[in-house]
């Protein structure tokens, strides 16, 4: 049912002139899903209030509710198309009345951690890209068939939405910034093993895959009302710079079951890390910061180690944002381990001296579809210097790609061995005091890998070719004698 609705919606979007990419499809699906979700949420809250004998004040006023403009119903419970807006009237209403009204919530909200504020931020960042009111009417009719009432329904919808994010990520370089393979995220979370009551942070949140997966990991542990409330409002925190990613990430968390996500739309790197205080720190950091980007000189001034490489600035931010005893898992380009520029050396030294970098996971080429770089995952704990580093080189035994993506089974051996830092054919340990203090080079060199055979000399190769030629000539002579 839900999958069929999503397929219908995608077909409608593909025929809409204002939507041309997977990013557009996901963005437009997001605001439609958000308003339907909000309508269902308000319906549930109104019923709960009535059962308690209390009044309920709606967030959305009567004139702008879903049932008024998107899906007015007749006595039979079906959409009354005589009352439902369509064509140019629908586009005019959405652009001139609905979006300005919803954007106004940001100014009217009492604080930034309310759902009202999220409504205002979302509709201040995106625009309706439907140009045909008839296409929009078809999309609204499809969305209205969805229900967000039960946990099972929310789970199915969140999986379908994740699939859209994955398609968006595979569609191009920009979309790929928003998608980290979920099997890798789940493995990172398993190793970190967060607990209810800990504050979890992603300063480069993107589509909020890390926070959503962390919520799914912790939700079964929440046994009491207080623990469930802690997960809802005092556990997951994120920041995201780009408007589309912010909207998609917020929607992704909402569909996973967090009503008012603590996601802030801001450039994380604009904050001077020297201003980060204890109250600003987190117990767990999970992130895949964008790499290859370049930040302006005024942004670089916020960091002790000056560099234009975005990922290196984020790593400084994460180290500073982690509380003493806190744990982090961060994806970064594998060149970070060996680059000889001053910033790379200084950052590796800072990481080794202020944190216990206990694990380095080397990911195979093609893990991130559309990205031509190899990556590693750094696992570290704040507060003690590094003593030993355990390396693991992931080898799934196949080439990675669209038809052979990373899966959970690929990560099993890593997770099992990491628990005891067990050495093996693809894993080894080095002592921190064996690292060159001048370069702090962390290059992956597997001492357990079988040594390759020595290359033959050119003369040996030429001699073999001559011998094979002579043997071939002799065989030809014998064949001619038989003719």
TrEMBL record:
Domain DNA methylase adenine-specific stretches: 153-444
Output the SUPFAM superfamilies linked to this UniProt entry: S-adenosyl-L-methionine-dependent methyltransferases
Which is a GO BP term held by this UniProt record?
methylation
Which is one GO molecular function term here?
methyltransferase activity
Q: Which reaction does it catalyse?
A: a 2'-deoxyadenosine in DNA + S-adenosyl-L-methionine = an N(6)-methyl-2'-deoxyadenosine in DNA + S-adenosyl-L-homocysteine + H(+)
Domain of life from the UniProt record: Bacteria
Q: Which UniProt keywords apply?
A: Methyltransferase, Restriction system, S-adenosyl-L-methionine, Transferase
**Pfam families per the UniProt record, alphabetical:** HsdM_N, N6_Mtase
PROSITE patterns reported for this sequence: N6_MTASE
| Sequence intervals crossing the membrane | none
Residue ranges annotated for the N6 adenine-specific DNA methyltransferase N-terminal domain, each copy included: 11-75
**Matching InterPro entries, A to Z?**
D12N6_MeTrfase_N (IPR022749), DNA_Adenine_Mtase (IPR051537), DNA_methylase_A-5 (IPR003356), DNA_methylase_N6_adenine_CS (IPR002052), SAM-dependent_MTases_sf (IPR029063), T1MK-like_N_sf (IPR038333)
EC number of this enzyme: 2.1.1.72
The UniProt entry's sequence similarity note says: Belongs to the N(4)/N(6)-methyltransferase family.
Protein name (database record): site-specific DNA-methyltransferase (adenine-specific)
Which species is listed as the source? Novosphingobium humi
């Amino acid at each position: 049912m839900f999958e069929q609705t999503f397929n219908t919606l995608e077909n409608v979007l593909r025929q809409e002139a204002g939507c041309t990419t997977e990013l557009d499809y996901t963005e437009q699906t997001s605001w439609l899903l958000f308003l339907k979700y909000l309508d269902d949420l308000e319906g549930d809250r109104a019923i709960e209030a009535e059962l308690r004998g209390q009044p309920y004040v709606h967030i959305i006023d009567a004139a702008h509710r879903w049932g008024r403009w998107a899906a007015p119903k007749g006595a039979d419970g079906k959409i009354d198309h005589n009352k439902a807006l369509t064509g140019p009237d629908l586009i005019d209403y959405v652009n001139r009345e609905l979006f300005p009204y919803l954007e106004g919530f940001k100014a009217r909200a009492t604080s930034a951690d309310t759902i009202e504020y999220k409504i205002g931020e979302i509709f201040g960042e995106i625009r309706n890209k439907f140009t045909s009111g008839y296409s929009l009417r078809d999309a609204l009719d499809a969305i209205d068939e969805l229900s967000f009432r039960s946990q099972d329904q929310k789970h199915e919808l969140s999986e379908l939405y994740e699939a859209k994010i994955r398609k968006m990520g595979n569609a191009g370089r920009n979309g790929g910034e928003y998608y980290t393979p979920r099997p890798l995220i789940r493995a990172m979370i398993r190793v970190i093993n967060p607990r209810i009551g800990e504050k979890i942070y992603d300063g480069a949140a993107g589509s909020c895959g890390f926070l959503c997966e962390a919520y799914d990991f912790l939700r079964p542990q929440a046994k009491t009302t207080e623990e469930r409330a802690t997960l809802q409002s005092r556990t997951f925190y994120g920041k995201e710079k780009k408007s589309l990613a912010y909207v998609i990430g917020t929607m992704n968390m909402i569909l996973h079951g967090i009503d008012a996500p603590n996601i802030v739309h801001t450039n994380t790197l604009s904050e001077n890390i020297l201003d980060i205080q204890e109250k600003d720190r987190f117990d767990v950091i999970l992130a895949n910061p964008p790499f290859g980007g370049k930040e302006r000189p005024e942004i670089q001034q916020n960091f002790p180690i000056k560099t234009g490489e975005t990922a290196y600035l984020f790593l400084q931010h994460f180290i500073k944002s982690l509380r003493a005893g806190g744990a982090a898992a961060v994806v970064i380009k594998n060149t970070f381990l060996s680059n000889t520029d001053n910033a790379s050396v200084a950052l590796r030294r800072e990481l080794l001296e202020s944190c216990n970098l206990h694990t380095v996971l080397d990911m195979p080429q093609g893990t991130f579809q559309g990205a031509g770089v190899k990556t590693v995952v750094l696992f570290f704990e704040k507060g003690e210097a590094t003593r030993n580093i355990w390396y693991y080189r992931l080898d799934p035994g196949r080439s990675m790609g669209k038809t052979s993506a990373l899966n959970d089974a690929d990560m099993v051996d890593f997770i099992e061995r990491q628990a005891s830092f067990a050495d093996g054919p693809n894993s080894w340990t080095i002592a921190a005091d064996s690292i060159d203090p001048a370069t702090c080079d962390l290059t992956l060199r597997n001492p357990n890998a079988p040594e390759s055979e020595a290359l033959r000399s050119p003369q040996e190769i030429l001699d073999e070719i001559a011998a094979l030629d002579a043997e071939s000539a002799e065989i030809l002579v014998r064949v001619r004698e038989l003719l």
